[in-house]
Amino acid sequence: MTEPYIGELRCFGFNFAPSGWAQCNGQQLPIQQNTALFSLLGTTYGGDGRTTFGLPDLRGRTALGSGQAPGLSSYAQGETGGVENVTLTAQQVAPHTHPVSGATDATAKNPQNSLPGFTASESSYSATASVTMSAAMIGPNTGGQPHENRSPFLALNWCIALTGVFPSRS
Hints:
The structure is a single chain. This protein is mainly β. It has two helices and nine strands. A three-stranded antiparallel sheet has the order 1-9-2, with no helix packed on it. It has a two-stranded antiparallel sheet with strand order 3-4. A two-stranded antiparallel sheet has the order 5-6. The chain is elongated. It starts with 8 loop residues before the first strand and ends in a 9-residue tail after the last strand.
């Protein structure tokens, strides 16, 4: 394996950080023992900048490229965002309708999704509506409950190189 750049991130299939690496779980490191890495990261991921600095915390997070692509939002290095669960509001749900069907005659061939009825000779229903349905029954309803907001995922062990080749700017 080639020597990594200091500050390089890699994901591993095993559950520990190899020698010269640290897991990306947001821990604080002493600047004095990690001057090269601190010179690259600064306090982008936390720390006081005098005695400590933070490593990236990728636990439960998806890595996202920093900067701004055409037509997309801008993201600063080290910025976090997003939520695991979202509760939609009525304004976020596209207008739509749901059909309702019913039969006034109990002799309907398929009573599924139909309203109870009587035989034609015992009809107690009128073809003309005499009442308005309850708004709670036919009005908009988003449920008000949060839903999962993550794509399918696979959790891996993200680590950062503490030692290696100091990257030069090209």
